Amino acid sequence: MMTPLQGIVAAPANSQTINNSQFEQSAEHKAHRAKKAENLTFQRLSDVTKAILHHAFWLAEQKNQLSLPDYKKLLLEQGWQGEEKKYLKIAAAFQKFSPQDIAQVEPRTIYQLAENSKKYQPIINRLLDLSVINQESVRGLLKKQRTRKTARYDKPSIWRRTKNGGRYCQIPPIHEPNEQTGITLQRMMDEEGLTAQHIVAEAIALRQAYKAGQLVRIDDNN
Questions:
Q1: Which domain holds residue 107?
Q2: Are residues 76 and 179 in the same domain?
Q3: Backbone φ and ψ of 15, nearest 5°
Q4: Per-residue confidence (pLDDT) for residue 150, from 0 to 100
Q5: What Cα–Cα distance (Å) separates residue 58 from each residue in 65, 117, 118, 152?
């Protein structure tokens, strides 16, 4: 005779199905909650961007409509004195847009473009041609501009700028194993009493004349 086992209860046949179902519902709920939180975050960023633009446009309007004393009084009353310039820059940079147009661009990028509007004006103009303006599209335009700028800098240039806006040419250092160019140039300077600049200028003029067919090379044997 078999002794019955106490305290052991058989699990329902569909317990695994129930557990799997509960897990799937829980995972789906968490994913939905995460997505909702993400959307809420983007919505808040969008609201911040729109608020910044609304404030910038309103402030620019007040500056145009009010007398200078009244405008300064407004800034003082609102505690904005010293802070208004960056908002006026935003209003000037994005005057052709509505706050809704660029609401999907993060606030930090808005400040970045406005603070350097001269540098980023091509990007701001390009936004007018886009059907959808968001952070991704602006980031793409910024990347393209950096790539073009790097390409320009990769091109060798002898030109340098002076403090008064003029320019001068500066020949990069000449590295040669036998130092022949430097030795020859120094000898010419010592023997003829000329500056390096003068000798180089003459050499370039002669080479240019030769390339233009104004000089003919004659061998010593002829």
A1: 26-155
A2: no
A3: -65, -40
A4: 59
A5: 11, 19, 22, 40
